[in-house]
UniProtKB/TrEMBL annotation:
Pfam families, per database record: CHAT
Name of protein: CHAT domain-containing tetratricopeptide repeat protein
Domain CHAT: 606-849
UniProt superkingdom: Bacteria
Lineage: Bacteria, Bacillati, Actinomycetota, Actinomycetes, Kitasatosporales
């Protein structure tokens, strides 16, 4: 009962102890309380109850009772880090038991062996236990044994064997009422999905397990460890670190298992390393190594040492000693049959390369490279990364490029299994090293055109295909509706000066639910095989249009100027300097949005000149007189490009990639020509341009006041030729897909836009911060504009900074006049800027807006 209804079992056991029970019954009751405390409470109390259960079992003159208590005590002692005592208790349990009871004790010993990382011993005990349990018709213990065997198979990388055992165990669990064991089975299936490379399924199953545990009211420390693994694989390392640290705090508070604490510390160390926090990773990994060593858990200790070495290297501590340490870890992991062995060999090779130890590097990298043809995607990428590193050391750019291509192809295949655009974007971080190696090799061996190809190979790849549409999930739709209502109520309370902590907590909970359901989506289409063709780009540019793609190599901006049938390269400034200057410009534009800051105008204009030197360098003098397309890296999309002197009076547009610009250029407008004008609440001018635009165009659909509600707005936006939305925009750097436009019933968020069958062909967002993005992964962008581009939008006008609402009105009216005369978005925006008054507020407003795409 303790694994079917834990809290009820605990209460029943306490009742039994209060009724003057016999030694036999008292032993059972103490064991139940001990198991409950062992798995979900205070381990010291658990040991006390389990020792009493053992002693009472011996007094009961039932060897089976004594053996059962010995086995439960042995597992608790192992979890407490008293490994020798725990194994002795389990050995004693095996010795005094027989038949069915011995099979149950063998299962416990197998479980303890798995905790300790003794996988082959665990498999041997399970192999002996399963036939006996089956013959006895013990469904529950047979299912437990199969689940454990599957988990051990996973630790050894035998995913197919694990799947078979999980399937058999699940069929048995369906016939029982063991709710905790069922939740554990769902959790284990989530782990199996992760090990097979199916991240969305893993997240869905782990969330389902969490819900099941929550109904039972039991803590979930092992689930946290597994969830952290999946979050890291999904590129969500900061979240994994936060979850692991929070679980450690809870575990310490209840005096829980030291084995689980060590595992959580290891998860936190891995997460910190992936998040780029080397010092936190070192601290957590060092503590984990010490705990694992004290618990005699060599398998786990070796994995923790791998993370510790990786973190020390990331902190700049490369040395000959670390090469030897990494090599020793690799050998030990290989002897365990651990899938992480190639990662350790790659690490040893990488450190050796940095020290100039070519012979050592070659030996370790060749071992790591063996993993490139089999195993899960990230293991294969490890192999191709090792291959590429050695090819670079050997001076073969051709082999570097081939290895990088093969490795990135593996990652491409992996990303197509991900339905959520956020996961697709973040997953590209796994390929950042390969992309960088390829870019350097392409420049050395093939010049500017080949560098352009590789720059495009790994730039804004998430925008190359529409995201998977969210499912018609009633729970998701309900959460979205509730989120809007709560967010609107919270906003209203803030404006009235009322406290909103309760509403904010509920809003955060709903955000977590929406995001979680979105991350469960699986990719519904394979890659379309698209490969960027520079010849096709040059042909579409013709003789007049220049495309400027900014690549970054070793921290410096490389300008690739594509025009008149060729690609030329110019070297500009340092990316870090450009980022700092862009931040200063953004601060200046924020001040200029308010009257009285005229003195800042020359300062901002001077910053624009410095930005041009850093970003375009000598290429600025080669732009000709025609239109320009700017393709910046993700970290520079906050630049207000209209402020650069060479672009200020020119027709120009911005695109996340050259491929994205080509797709936008070739996107046909919808035949209907339908136009939609939306006016949200709370604008200083009341969205004053909308009524005037509606008067000019009597056929346009106008949504304002109570009609500007999210469901109706989405319905009208779907498939429109032109949409204009005047509404307050909010960019969420912490969660970019919750960036929003304020409607009458609450925020219209990126998750809503992704439900459109086809977003408007052209869309104008005349509000603050709508062109702000989060740069994630290798070179990906998350935000409002990037949600629209893959869904059929060919042109967007949006704003990268806070602007003055009143100054926006004349800009928008002139912009629409140009569009009505047949101009493109970029042409109309250039003319609208030129027509503005010359004061600082209007000038800053014009500079803050950019045209994206090609329509």
């Amino acid at each position: 009962m303790v694994f079917a209804a834990p809290n009820q079992a605990l209460a029943r056991a306490e009742e039994v102890l209060g009724s003057d029970p016999s030694p036999l019954h008292a032993s059972v009751a103490h064991q139940v309380i001990g198991i409950w405390q062992r798995d979900w409470g205070d381990l010291r109390l658990a040991l006390d109850h389990l020792r009493r259960a053992r002693d009472l079992g011996a007094r009961s003159e039932s060897t089976d009772r004594e053996a059962d208590a010995l086995a439960a005590l042995g597992v608790a002692l192992v979890h407490a880090g008293r490994t020798r005592q725990g194994l002795e208790s389990l050995e004693r349990g095996v010795a005094v038991s027989s038949g069915h009871t011995r099979a149950q004790v063998l299962f416990r010993r197998a479980y303890a062996s798995w905790v300790l990382g003794h996988h082959r011993a665990a498999l041997e005990d399970v192999r002996r236990a399963v036939p006996v349990l089956r013959q006895a018709g013990d469904v529950i213990w047979t299912a437990r044994a199969l689940t454990l065997r599957a988990t051990v198979h996973l630790a050894l990388g035998a995913v197919e064997r694990a799947d078979a055992d999980f399937t058999a165990a699940e069929a048995l669990w369906d016939t029982t009422g063991q709710e905790h064991d069922k939740a554990d089975a769902v959790e284990s299936r989530g782990l199996a999905a992760y090990r097979s490379g199916d991240i969305p399924a893993a997240l869905r199953l782990l969330d389902e397990a969490q819900e099941r545990y929550a109904k039972l009211g039991t803590p979930t420390f092992m689930l946290t460890v597994r969830r952290c693994e999946v979050l890291m694989a999904a590129g969500l390392a900061p979240e994994a670190l936060a979850e692991a640290d929070a679980a450690i705090k809870v575990l310490d508070g209840i005096g829980g298992q030291s084995t689980r604490k060590a595992e959580l510390l290891l998860a936190a160390a891995r997460a910190a390393r992936h998040a780029g926090d080397a010092h936190t990773a070192i601290a957590r990994a060092d503590m984990a190594v010490r705990l694992f060593a004290g618990q005699r858990r060599t398998w786990w200790e070796t994995h923790a040492r791998l993370v510790l070495i990786e973190a020390r290297v990331a902190a700049g501590r490369g040395s000959g000693r670390l090469v030897a340490d990494a090599a020793a870890v690799a050998d030990r992991l290989a002897s365990f049959g651990a899938p992480a062995a190639p990662e350790a060999s790659l690490l040893a090779g990488r450190i050796a390369l940095g020290l100039g130890w070519r012979d050592d590097a070659r030996r370790h990298l060749e071992v790591a490279a063996r993993s490139r043809h089999s195993g899960p995607p990230l293991a294969r990428m490890t192999g191709w990364a090792a291959r590429a590193l050695w090819a670079r050391a050997a001076g073969s750019d051709r082999r570097v490029l081939e290895a990088c291509r093969r490795g990135l192809d593996v990652l491409d295949d992996h990303r197509t299994t991900l339905g959520a655009s956020e996961l697709r974007a973040r997953a590209t971080a796994q390929g950042a090293e390969l992309a960088g190696l390829a870019a350097r090799a392409s420049l050395r061996s093939g010049g500017p055109r080949r560098l352009l190809v590789w720059s495009e190979r790994w730039r804004a790849t998430v925008l190359s295909a529409p995201p998977t549409r969210p499912p018609a999930d009633p729970a998701l739709l309900s959460d979205l509706t509730a989120f809007r209502e709560i967010a609107a109520r919270a906003e209203g309370a803030r404006m009235e000066g009322r406290p909103v902590p309760t509403l904010e907590r509920e809003q955060r909970r709903l955000e977590r639910e929406i995001r979680s359901r979105s991350l469960h989506m699986r990719g519904d289409a394979s890659g379309d095989g698209y490969r960027f063709d520079p010849g096709r780009l040059l042909e579409r540019l013709g003789d007049e249009v220049r495309l400027v793609e900014l690549a970054v190599l070793d921290g410096r901006v490389q300008v690739l100027l594509c025009a008149q049938g060729r690609v030329r390269r110019f070297e500009a400034g340092l990316l870090a300097d450009a980022e700092r200057e862009a931040e200063h410009v953004q601060a200046g534009l924020r001040r200029l949005a308010h009257p009285g800051a005229e003195a800042r105008l020359p300062v901002v204009e001077a910053a624009g000149r410095r930005l041009e030197e850093l970003l375009l360098g000598p290429a600025a003098a080669q732009l000709g007189s025609g239109p320009v397309v700017v393709v910046p890296p993700g970290r520079l999309h906050q630049v207000p490009w209209a402020l650069l002197p060479s672009l200020r009076e020119r027709v120009f547009s911005v695109s996340p990639s050259a491929s994205s610009w080509l797709r936008a250029r070739e996107t046909a407008p919808p035949p209907s020509g339908r136009q939609v004008l939306v006016r949200g609440p709370g604008l200083a001018t009341g969205g004053a341009e909308v009524p005037e635009l509606a008067g000019r165009n009597g056929s346009a659909t106008v949504l304002e006041h109570d009609e500007a509600r999210v469901p109706r707005v989405l319905e009208e936006l779907d498939g429109a030729a032109l949409a204009h939305i005047a509404a307050h925009g909010t960019f969420r750097a912490d969660s970019p897909l919750f960036s929003s436009l304020r409607m009458a019933d609450g925020p219209l968020i990126v998750h809503d836009f992704e439900r459109l069958d086809r977003s408007p062909y052209r869309i104008i967002l005349s509000c603050c911060d709508t062109a702000r993005f989060a740069s994630v992964g290798a070179d990906e962008l998350l935000g409002l504009v990037t949600a629209l581009l893959p869904l059929g939008t060919a042109g967007v006008v949006a704003c990268s900074a806070p602007v003055n609402d009143e100054a926006v009105v004349p800009l928008m009216l002139t912009l629409h006049k140009g569009l009505g005369a047949g101009a493109s978005m970029a042409e109309a925006l250039r003319d609208a800027r030129a027509a503005l008054p010359g004061d600082s507020v209007h000038q800053a407003t014009g500079w803050a807006f950019s045209a994206f795409g090609a329509a």
